[in-house]
Amino acid sequence: MSVFTKVSHNELRDFLKAYPVGELIGYQGIGEGVENTNYFVDTTDGRWVLTLFERLNHEDLPFFLGLMDHLAGRGYPSAMPARSREGANLTSLNGKPAALVRRLVGQSVLFPNIAQCQAVGRALGELHVAGLSFAGRADNTRGPAWRQATAETLLPRVDAAQRALIESELAAQAQLDWATLPQGVIHADLFRDNVLFVEDRLTGVIDFYYACTDALAYDLAVTLNDWCTDPDGRPNPARWQMMTLAYRGSRELNAAERAAWPLVLRAAAFRFYLSRLYDWTFPREGDVVHVKDPEQYRRILEWHRDQAPLPL
């Protein structure tokens, strides 16, 4: 949610005329995240989030916006995309695809407690079940092929220790046949900054712009790695157990997923280690750009490589 594309007051005011959302009151850029330009927007008809998509194009976006519509229409705490006066939920602003979604109440948490981890596990399981009735399909743009290509780009630019870790993990991941694992719609980025709470009540799941069709267990691994690990990279047993139990209350993992689980956890950590290392090595320009330290995910990856996972 960094700000790469500036939007002036007049540009935003003119943009909002296409929507039945009232008059512009104020707006501000959101500095969190790393992929898209995001603004909080207040109008006389409510509070919104405006997203300008920096890497995704018009052909990719109907899947994400359609998924949000699908989930919100079934009572899931996902923001509903606004529709223009012409009925479109995807428009353009300053040469970029743009969407306006209703801003949900609540705030993200930096240090989650047990109850919040339980709520996230339950919400993730419910997402996977609700996604079974969604007709859309999208490949994971950060899947194995991306990991291979990104690693190859990074290898000439990193130090010897980083190179050894990347090459070793690529070889290990080649053993995993993702097609043998149950597939469905996944969020793929359910980090702490993408879930909203009012105290311990989960009020919103946001930022579906990495959502795709992939192994459901991978989504659980991504979420556990962020919500339930300590700064040194090791899992926090209480939070880890509560999240997995809550997830399994909605959807149970099968034998293939349990057998593949150690490598799935590593794949989830490897994906974010590579993306953060890439952004660290090849920084992007922007008005407010938040680049996350890859070392956190190096520690998580190395923990999973060296230790057996906690029981599911």
Quick structural gist:
The protein is an alpha+beta fold and about 300 residues long. It has helices spanning about 10-15, 60-70, 115-130, 145-155, 160-175, 215-225, 235-250, 255-280, 295-305; strands at about 25-30, 35-45, 45-50, 90-95, 95-100, 185, 195-200, 200-205, 210-215.
Helical fraction: 40-55%
Instruction: Specify Rg, calculated over alpha carbons.
Output: 19 Å
In the residues, how many domains can be counted? 2
CATH class call of the largest domain: Alpha Beta
CATH architecture of the largest domain: Alpha-Beta Complex
Structure description:
Helices cover 41% and strands 15% of the residues. The protein has 312 residues and is an alpha+beta fold. The chain folds into 2 domains: 9-102, Phosphorylase Kinase, domain 1, CATH 3.30.200; 114-306, Aminoglycoside 3'-phosphotransferase, Chain: A, domain 2 (Alpha-Beta Complex). The chain has a 5-stranded antiparallel sheet, covered by helices on one side. It has a two-stranded antiparallel ribbon with strand order 6-9. The chain has a two-stranded antiparallel ribbon with strand order 7-8. β2 (37-43) and β3 form a beta hairpin. α3 (114-130) packs parallel to α7 (237-250) and α5 packs antiparallel against α8 (255-281).
